[in-house]
Design a protein that fits this description.
alpha/beta, globular
Length: 193
Amino acid sequence: MHSEFDYEITSEKCPGLEYGVINGNCHVVLIKLPRNETIFGYRNKYAKMAKELRNRLDCSVICANNIGDDVSRKYDVKILKKYVELRGFYKPEFSFIGICEGASFLLSHMSKCIEFKKMLLVNMPISYKLGETVNLLSNIDRNKLKFVYGDKDPSYRYTPLLKRMYAEVITISGADHYFSDKSCSFIDIQKLL
């Protein structure tokens, strides 16, 4: 399979952790994936999304898989900072796209570690952590935040609360949690950032 990425990063200290990088300008977008997905995804959908995003905004894009431990949380911040340093970006801007559990990760962790311009959270599970989600959202500027939910996603039922209290919510008709049979709609989500 031909990689859509300019290069890939792995770590010996944290086996299973991987990043796909596409070079662009000093606006750096981190795409945090669902748990246990590769940086490519089914039919290369994450790499395709990253490439489309870079082509549209000329931004740099880093896709980060999600192995769900504290070591990987530290690596995400290190990778972003190292990338900015190596590219010589003087005043970088950061935006985030989080998908499923990756959205929860960005909201709970990265939003506290790195100042961001925009955050797009896709099918973020909130049903079992509603109180925690409400607390996290109360500390974020709602103008920087958008949610995207497929109307077949289990957490879709909470979108009226999100709309009323916190942020813009975009609904994708017919999409389930994984955007099964909706890969083009999934890749196009990057246009909302």
